[in-house]
Amino acid sequence: MSNSVVVLLAVVVVANCAPQGREVPLSPFEGRIVGGHDADIKDYPYQLSLLFKGRHMCGASIIGEKWALTAGHCVDGMTADVLSVRAGSSILETGGQLIKVKKFYAHPKFSAEVADYDMALLELETSIAMTDSSAVIKLVDGKSRDLQGKEATVTGWGTVYEDDESLPSQLQVVEVPVLGDDECRRFYGNDKITDRMLCAGLIEGGKDSCQGDSGGPLVVDGKLRNCFGDWLR
């Protein structure tokens, strides 16, 4: 983690976004939650675990009974037959509803070399049963420019220590403030931050996100603002 800044780079969810693995495939856009705490799925019922051959790989969000949103890099180079989602469970790789992915649709402008347009829709084979542990998250209709200083909620099962690659069994949550675009660009340059990105995090560090959280939700004011991408260092 950089001593100067820890910033979350995430791809803004818009209303019209339509997304050779290894065991478990690791993305160059690794994300993680550090400095968070245990959470109950009933408080974040939109949270999904995206599994590769039955093992947790990324996070995802419920946006419809048969639809989920994740990061494009989470499904890059894969086929739908090796993917499934788990809904309605706080515990990693057990409980809840296990549903196969029928198809996925990466954003046509997504590239594995860059973080822009890093989103993918997952079409599920069967509907998710809506309960107090499984529910649709509201979407925004575009990127709001008045979010600076607001608290963003990030959830997932990523590693909780920077030097430990093991995943927690319990869902984790962390609250981080949204940073302004100008502040973000001061650290990373105008060419790296696009209109489809949002920065959130602590200038002094201490709260971070880990491998396994990528693709999961970043929520502000009860709405899904982002498909969680990566922590820049």
From TrEMBL:
- Extent of the signal sequence: 1-17
Peptidase S1 domain residues: 33-233
Record's keyword terms, sorted: Disulfide bond, Hydrolase, Protease, Serine protease, Signal
GO molecular function, one example?
serine-type endopeptidase activity
GO terms in the biological process aspect are: proteolysis
**What SMART domains does this protein's entry cite?**
Tryp_SPc
InterPro entries tied to this protein = Peptidase_S1, Peptidase_S1_PA, Peptidase_S1_PA_chymotrypsin, Peptidase_S1A, Trypsin_dom, TRYPSIN_HIS, TRYPSIN_SER
Q: Which family does it belong to?
A: Belongs to the peptidase S1 family.
The protein, known as: Peptidase S1 domain-containing protein
Organism the protein comes from:
Aromia moschata
